[in-house]
């Protein structure tokens, strides 16, 4: 009987997840990973410190085809959900702000137009947005309506054939740099979506400053002071809360993958550091307490990656429900936070500097755990699916 050879463990692909991907999926992942390594990682610490994200990245992201890549037609790549997820993983391994830019552009603004817009709206906006030549934002959250979007106060009323919008939106990624805002408002006909081009009279923005999280991202307040829009600004196919919620499910799906990418970046930084950093005449990786930390981080990173991949396959088979996505976001973001905090300890004092990615990811994840539905809300969604009892009302 021939002897078998025990496979060699690869620390950064412990469960050989690479083998579960197709050649095309690996090519897409490697393209985005190379972009992040070349255009993001050398500079993102400075961007975080300076609270900015260079706008030219949008066109570069358009050139590699990741903006709206999971949509079909109108200049979009029509990639699989799994391929899109892999791109989100690599983008957030760079920085959550970068993945947020892509998510808001593709899964919120572009998806809203693609799913709920008229053919004219699609033809006008989607090709330039896919190319990164036009940036979009998504105006749903308000100062007093975060987890409960149905209680929003922004209203739109008819005035002849026009619409008049009045209200306020808060925590809007890309808000002040967007060429078009997808704004949701209450009407006498139910919740409706509108496309508001930059420069429209009465539409103003102001950036939110003094953030200690998602600093390499533009986050804005949007003010709508009796904004007059023509009838063709209305998204004709969205007539209820189902419209924005469908968009949010798309964006949350990307977060499931992105959080796994942030966790992986923190784990790999801690692993490399533990092998290089010497104390008491040996690498700190030689100490049992550090190996226990590394083992638990590796477990969470691989578990999060497997969960993301499984949900991606479900989505590609059209079997993914919003409740599945809630489990993915709740589990993976919480896991990523724990990995980041543990990695911070492994790095010691160096863990709080921007010379390493860990504190940046750790701070960013404090936003990711809140936006697109807080951890508490997603727990209630899962609880409702398990029990059949809605805990919200």
Report on this model:
This protein folds into three domains: about 15-130, Butyryl-Coa Dehydrogenase, subunit A, domain 1, CATH 1.10.540.10; about 135-235, Butyryl-CoA Dehydrogenase, subunit A, domain 2; about 240-385, Butyryl-CoA Dehydrogenase, subunit A, domain 3 (Up-down Bundle). The radius of gyration is 22 Å and the shape is globular. The chain has about 400 residues and is an alpha+beta fold. It has helices at about 25-40, 45-50, 55-65, 80-95, 95-115, 120-130, 240-275, 290-315, 320-345, 360-370, 375-385, and strands at about 70-75, 75, 135-140, 155-160, 160-175, 180-185, 190-195, 205, 220-230, 280, 280-285. A hairpin with a 2-residue loop joins strand 4 (about 155-160) and strand 5 (about 160-175). Helix 5 (about 95-115) packs antiparallel against helix 7 (about 240-275) and helix 9 (about 320-345) crosses helix 11 (about 375-385).
């Amino acid at each position: 009987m021939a002897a078998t050879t025990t496979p060699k463990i690869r620390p950064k692909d412990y469960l050989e997840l690479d083998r579960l991907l197709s050649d095309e999926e690996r090519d897409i992942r490697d393209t985005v990973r190379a972009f992040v390594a070349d255009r993001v990682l050398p500079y993102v610490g400075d961007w975080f410190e300076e609270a900015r994200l260079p706008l030219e990245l949008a066109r570069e992201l358009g050139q590699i085809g990741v903006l709206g890549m999971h949509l079909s037609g109108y200049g979009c790549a029509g990639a699989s959900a799994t391929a899109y997820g892999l791109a989100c993983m690599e983008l957030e391994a760079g920085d959550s702000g970068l993945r947020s830019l892509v998510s808001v552009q593709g899964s919120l603004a572009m998806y809203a137009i693609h799913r709920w817009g008229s053919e004219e709206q699609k033809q006008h906006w989607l090709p330039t947005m896919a190319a990164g030549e036009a940036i979009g934002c998504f105006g749903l959250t308000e100062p007093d309506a975060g987890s409960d979007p149905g209680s929003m106060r922004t209203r739109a009323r008819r005035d002849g054939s026009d619409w008049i919008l009045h209200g306020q939106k808060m925590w809007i990624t890309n808000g002040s740099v967007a060429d078009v805002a997808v704004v949701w408002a209450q009407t006498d006909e139910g919740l409706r979506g509108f496309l508001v081009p930059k420069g429209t009279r009465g539409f103003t923005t102001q950036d939110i400053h003094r953030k200690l999280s998602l600093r390499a991202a533009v986050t804005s307040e949007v003010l709508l002071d009796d904004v007059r829009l023509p009838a063709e600004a209305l998204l004709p196919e969205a007539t209820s809360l189902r419209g924005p919620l469908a968009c949010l499910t798309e964006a949350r799906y990307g977060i499931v993958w992105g959080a796994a990418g942030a966790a992986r970046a923190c784990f790999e930084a801690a692993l490399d550091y533990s092998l290089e950093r010497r104390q008491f005449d040996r690498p700190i990786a030689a100490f049992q307490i550090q190996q226990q930390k590394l083992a638990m981080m590796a477990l969470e990173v691989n578990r999060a990656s497997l969960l993301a991949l499984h949900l991606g396959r479900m989505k590609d088979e059209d079997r993914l429900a919003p409740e599945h996505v809630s489990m993915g976001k709740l589990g993976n973001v919480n896991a990523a936070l724990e990995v980041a905090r543990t990695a911070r300890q492994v790095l010691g004092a160096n863990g709080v500097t921007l010379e390493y990615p860990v504190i940046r990811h750790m701070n960013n994840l404090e936003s990711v755990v809140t936006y697109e539905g807080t951890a508490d809300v997603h727990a209630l969604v899962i609880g409702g699916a398990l029990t059949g009892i809605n805990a919200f009302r």
